[in-house]
Design brief:
alpha/beta, 10 strands, about 325 residues
Length: about 325
């Protein structure tokens, strides 16, 4: 990366931060929340349907220019092709999506905790999301959509890669609890055109692959009902993230295919909070994902320097 491009990126970063006005000061972090105390029913997370993965291609495909759609799109055509090439491996827990499979139980813990608190649902219930209408934007092969359905939600999974949707449907049909998921090969922008609305909108490991994060967040906001919930997980644009999510994960450990992520496309927590605020979504809670190489497991943490997840609510 040349010095000129770095200076331009730094200038953009400073412009965004200058408008934050302490945006993160009102956000509750994992370290001072009750997330850790809330139970996760064992029936809610099926080990066969959730497995390892940091932030890979599950949603990447959602972020590409799909010319079949008439609606303006924040997607990148190159990303679409990249993840279409490995679509057949979605349910291979030792394949390219291994990091997402590993991360899945941890991101579900955060989603379960925040949504139960916001919608006043019983976190001890095996199906706490009963009555909630949730869209999984950039659903990939459905590894997040399926456990959400098992927790009782009415789930719509969308992805811009047709192969992903076909695989998601085939896998969901194997279980009566997940066969009700509505899978569509479409984009968030197209759903906005169709005037669809959801109680909760989830975009996990997607926003770092979109061409225009601000426009993408506007679409997510438009899909969310008034006082509904929005959950986004992504990777921080930090040097530590570059070292771990790109150098280590892609080039040394080979957890992910090389080129899966572009460091310049990552967002800092401050930037994400500001972008969501401008889209009428107030971020209320944030947590980091931390990997333990000794146990091979992910956990929620107050450390948001690499992988992080944010929960926000739509202004009425």
């Amino acid at each position: 990366m040349g010095s000129n491009s770095i200076s331009k990126m730094a200038a953009r970063h400073l412009r965004i931060l200058s408008g934050c006005n302490g945006a993160l000061l009102s956000v509750r972090f994992f370290s001072d929340s009750t997330l850790a105390q809330e139970p996760i029913a064992s029936t809610a997370i099926d080990s066969a349907s959730v497995s390892p993965s940091i932030n890979t291609a599950e949603n990447h495909s959602q972020l590409n220019n799909n010319k079949k759609h008439s609606a303006p799109s924040s997607l990148k055509h190159a990303e679409l092709a990249k993840f279409s090439a490995i679509a057949d491996t979605w349910w291979d827990s030792e394949g390219p999506y291994k990091p997402l499979h590993a991360l899945n139980p941890t991101r579900l813990a955060f989603i379960r905790s925040t949504l139960c608190r916001h919608f006043r649902k019983d976190p001890y219930s095996a199906r706490p999301f009963e009555g909630l209408n949730i869209v999984d934007v950039g659903c990939g092969g459905g590894i997040l959509s399926e456990p959400l359905a098992r927790m009782g939600a009415t789930v719509t999974g969308i992805d811009a890669v047709e192969k992903n949707i076909k695989i998601a449907r085939l896998h969901a049909d194997l279980d009566p609890e997940t066969s009700t998921i509505e899978y569509c090969c479409t984009t968030a922008e197209k759903l906005v055109e169709e005037q669809r609305k959801f109680d909760a909108v989830i975009a996990s490991e997607v926003i770092e692959h979109v061409a225009d994060p601000a426009e993408f967040c506007k679409s997510l906001s438009a899909l969310t009902v008034s006082e509904g919930a929005t959950v986004i997980s992504t990777i921080n644009r930090s040097m530590r993230a570059y070292a771990t999510a790109i150098i280590a994960a892609e080039h040394i450990l080979h957890w992910l295919p090389k080129g899966t992520h572009q460091w310049s496309s990552f967002l800092t927590p401050e930037e994400l909070v500001l972008i969501l605020q401008r889209a009428s979504i107030d971020v209320k809670e944030m947590a980091g994902f931390v990997y333990n190489p000794l146990t091979g497991r992910w956990s929620l943490s107050g450390d948001i320097s690499v992988n992080f997840i944010a929960f926000g609510t739509k202004n009425s």
